[in-house]
Amino acid sequence: MPCIMNWEEWAQHDAVGLAERVQRGELTPTELASQTAEAIARVNPQLSAVVEVFEDLVTEPTRDGMNPQGPFAGVPYLMKDLGPTLKGRLQEMGSRLMRGNRATADSYLAGRIKQAGLNVIGRTTTPEFGVCSSAENPAVYVTRNPWNLAYTTCGSSAGTAAAVAAGVLPLSHATDGGGSIRIPAGFNGNIGLKASRGVFSIAPAASDLTGLVSTQGCHSRTVRDTAAFVDHCRGGAPGEFMPYWSPAEPYSTLIERDPGRLRIALSHEWGHYRAVPHFAAELERVGRFLESLGHHVEWALPQVDLEAAFAAQTTCYISNFAQTITNLIKPLGLERPPADLVEPINIKIWEEGLKTSYAERARMQAVFNTTSRGFGEFFEQWDIILTPITALPTPLLGTTEYLTISDNPSVYDWFENLWQNFAYTPLSNLCGIPGISLPMASQDNGLPLGIQAQAAQAKDGLLLQLAAQIERALGGKWNDGRRPGVHVAQITPRSPTSPNS
Length: 501
Prior knowledge:
This protein has 17 helices and 17 strands. The chain is of the alpha+beta class and about 500 residues long.
């Protein structure tokens, strides 16, 4: 089927805009799916962002139960190869161990996504089990940053970040257990919201109690797309661990109004972690921009024991990941993860996590509690806290210290390497508060730099309201109006050469 619009026109549409055209009878879900499949074919050889296209859903969008009357009206969507399952479809989690693993049922969120009218036409890349910061294992795949192919997209929502940034589609699935929505959004120039606890379900296989720090979400290029996704896909399954909440009005309506004058704190000094000077300067510049919009901005930081919080977060990840791997190997009849099929750091995490005692988990939870209360008190005085999305620049591909193919003998040293860079995102997972990465800054190397805004629990709408105000003030031109070198509307995509190419 020929493309229904040229690539420049395609790239200018967001998901809400495409849905409106379908609803007016100008386009069909099949035409949208066909153009998305062609977009994938156009850029995926350079990016390695999409694992699989579901060809049957390209030609027959309602085959798997997508509701064409839903608000998204058949707009194409890609699912990260981790998290929500799709009945009968492969979910291989970036792992050789899980090759051929096929889901037996839709997860609850997958059902919500389909009911909202999103046509899930394929899978995007992720690191093995979503553990590390880059989908980068040559034995599986290496996902490249469309702004410069010598760099990682970061992760773990790696393929989604690259696909949305490259103009393949306007909206795609992401997950976040410590920054995996926000960090790749920040390094690829997308909008990435990590919602509060009690917004997106992870039923039926897990709950907020078992997941504790993980949540679902999306990447988009417009605030209204993110708002619409949250509005139409949120909600808990029967029997959830905790009540799932709803805002007083839909976010799609809320974002039409500017917020009042906000008290906005800036910080890049978290415990002994510090941003590089350029990132600190970019944060300060954004702060001045927000002052020009009428907000009160100054430097401030929650009074919590950040080092204790990161130690507790490490305990959480090690013990959670160990149980995840145990749950995956048991049905395969394995006693331990095989070294030829599971990456070395993940095996070390499994080994260390099995040693975690109930007493250690209880101490971890006590720190989670005091940290959450500390942030809660902070947000009694402040509406928003702003940070860079990371402390250090985007790593070049092949920087193994952040990868689960690393040969680091110490799991704890490996996690400390992560925190030195990815310091600003994990604690919102610990506290269950919302955070959003907005493409408002840039790095010395030319790649985007997300600026993260965090707010009190259940203040997701406030973050989206501020984001929409910023978007209007920028005339809709995130990333200063720039596009990545590899993009569907580019005639000659950049090839991987030097870091500065």
